[in-house]
Amino acid sequence: MEKIKINHLDLFSGIGGFHLGFEKAGFEVNSYFSEVDKYAIDVYKNNFKNSNYVGSVTDVRGTELPKIDVITFGSPCQDFSLAGKRKGMGVNRSSLITEAIRLIDECRPRFFVWENVKGTFSSNNGEDFWAIIQAFANIGGYRLEWQLLNTKWFLPQNRERIYLVGYIGNGSGGQVFPIGKINSGNNEKTDKLTSACITTSYHKGVNFDNQLIKVNSATKRGYELATEGDSVNLAVPTSKTRRGRVGKDVAQTLDTHCNQAVIQNKIRRLTPVECERLQGFPDNWTKYGKEIGDISDTQRYKMCGNAVTVDVVEAVAKNIIKTIY
């Protein structure tokens, strides 16, 4: 099938998860990307040689761009996250979504896709989410659909995210959502995940007991049991309230510090390559920048934790093709 050519405005672009996901779905992408993190910018330029950097989202103007077919954005989510202080739309970081809404209004793309954390549904008792929906609706002319999707349907990482699609045009009368669980290919991905060398050993909050490992957790018995192949969340190891630290054959949600480990005889931290795989990127996607050259593991963990999952974007994009093209 002939690829569909699109001009893509990639806001808060990170390392290009939306761009790569659309390419895998069958789009030919001409990208204009906006980002402020210098490492992510350099990785994007290195992997998408013909991309066009357009600066910070606050400086982008629709009148200065060619006709845009799609806008994607995973706006900063610190204030929507269940792990944060839940300040919601009143805080500057999350208010950057208003810049994306402005650009949708200015560019009138054929469709747009927004990704954010599950906590967006309940931020300020749900008022923030519905305020965003109202803002999208006020633009006029867009049908809106959304669904909570989990990366573990595609790859061995438990990562729940909201995906919202707005689109115009005649379409086929179908819908983008729902998208169901996809199980094929997980075993291969899991095998690849556990192939790297052991890099670290013991951690606080973890005790070895024969073949089982006791991980401190706020359960009735005070711990969870883990064994070979399980993942362990090592964030705030002395916390008295955290639970769900052990993932059975699935990684916990990647964060920007990679407080995630896997059990292979010992407890070891995930490698940057494993984090890339868990997000659907090719090996060493974040290892080099176009100008910076070699990038530190610290920055690679941060970029992977901030990224959208490529395989989830691909599934959404394939349904967009069926629905509106």
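[next item in queue]
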Amino acid sequence: MEEYYFEDLHGYYRNLQMGLPPLYYDGRANPPDLVPWIEYLVRIMALAYEKVANLAIQFSVSDVDPRVLELMPEKKYYVF
């Protein structure tokens, strides 16, 4: 997910700040609103998931090694 953070550093730091003032004594003692950070994190996770899912689909339709096709679920293979 770091690559998505890197592509949007401004958004990352803006959401990480959660609308709080930079200095603790300027009102940071109040509990922060975590919603912006959680929404940003979930959006980045969704982008990362979509990329992995698309790669999985791309590779799932590629040619399968014939040795893998020979493995039948009925056969039991033991490694000693």
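[queue empty]
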